[in-house]
Amino acid sequence: MAGVFSYESSEIDWCEDNYKHSENVVEFFNTMSSFIFFIISPIMLYLLHPYAKERNLAIHLVWVMMLFVGIFSAYFHMTLSFVGQMLDELSILWVLAVGYAIWFPRRLFPSFIKDRSTFSRLILVVTVATSVSSFVKPTVNAYALNCFGLHMLYILAIEMRCCTDQKALRLAKWSVALWILAISCWISDRFGCGFWQRINFCYLHSIWHILIVIAVAYGSTLIAYLDANYEIPYSLPGLQYWPCDKLALGLPHIVLKGTTKTLKRC
Ligand SMILES: [Zn+2]
Q1: pLDDT of residue 259
Q2: What is each CA distance from 206 to 16, 20, 140, 144, 199, in whole angstroms?
Q3: Where does Ca(2+) bind (predicted)?
Q4: What is the tally of structural domains in the chain?
């Protein structure tokens, strides 16, 4: 049993050389780059707070879970242990499940589901069952991950086809570009390692960590923005970038130009 916690008990080993910079850290740069989660997540929690306060505080769970992804990712790359791998993969499933439960459009719920709390409870049951069965058969997690992720992507694509909001369209384009770039780094590190080792550049998985956090910030803000337009339209949601809104540079977030009071007055 203790074996699952031991160093290198996972079957996965990324391209970076092991124990190159420290005898306690298996993959030094992959571990260090996981700390990007601890920088971006608190900023996003702060930036999205006005929207979460108006819509539902449960929205904060997405970036709270992202903090856990960072913790488990750092632990996994530090040890390459089987438990580290499981925690890293499962925390990603939980981020997707939380996003799916809170942002899946209400109008697309199946007829037997009446409200969001029933829908969320159903997703919770599926996610707990998947997490437990992953310890017996790890591929179950990958299937559930893809189901949540691809379904959200499909709905988002349909939504964007009839969208005329230029700011939302720009955010969508950047989100797609960042996701493609991030996934290319992941794939290239995994399957083209020989080449990267020959040119002595084994940092693509570290770059993936950085890109994927930014891609999640872009993608989730886009989904949140569309959600805000449906669920809290009276608050007049808009898109802004921090720290530089003029150049649309930095982290996207939602600003509410109206308040509940404006609605009541009307
Ligand atoms: Zn990683």
Answers
A1: 67
A2: 9, 15, 26, 25, 16
A3: 13-14, 16, 18, 27
A4: 1
120 within domain boundaries: yes
Averaged pLDDT for residues 110-130: 93
Task: Encode pLDDT of 242-260 as tens digits.
Answer: 998 888 889 999 999 986 6
CA-CA distance, 131 to 134, in Å (whole number)? Answer: 5
What pLDDT shows up at residue 261? 56
d(CA 68, CA 15): 24
Q: 187-202: per-residue pLDDT in tens?
A: 999 999 999 999 999 9
Residues of the domain holding 90: 17-265
The CATH number assigned to the domain holding 61 equals: 1.20.1070
Give the angle subtended at the CA of 72 by the CAs of 71 and 78, to the nearest 5°.
95
Distance from the alpha carbon of residue 50 to the mean position of ligand 1, in angstroms: 31
> Measured between alpha carbons, how far apart are the two ends of the chain, in Å?
64
Q: What is the pLDDT of residues 39-51, one digit of tens each?
A: 999 999 999 999 9
Distance between CA atoms of residues 18 and 121, nearest Å: 42
Ligand 1 geometric centre to CA of 210 (Å) = 10
**What average pLDDT is seen over the chain?**
91
Residue 88 lies in a domain: yes
Residues placed in the known binding site for Ca(2+): 13-14, 16, 18, 27
Distance 202 CA to ligand 1 centre (A): 13
In a domain, 134, yes or no: yes
Query: Does any domain span residue 11?
Result: no
- Rounded to 5 degrees, φ, ψ at 243 are -95, -10
**Residues comprising the binding site?**
13-14, 16, 18, 27, 77, 205, 209
Give the per-residue pLDDT at 1: 66
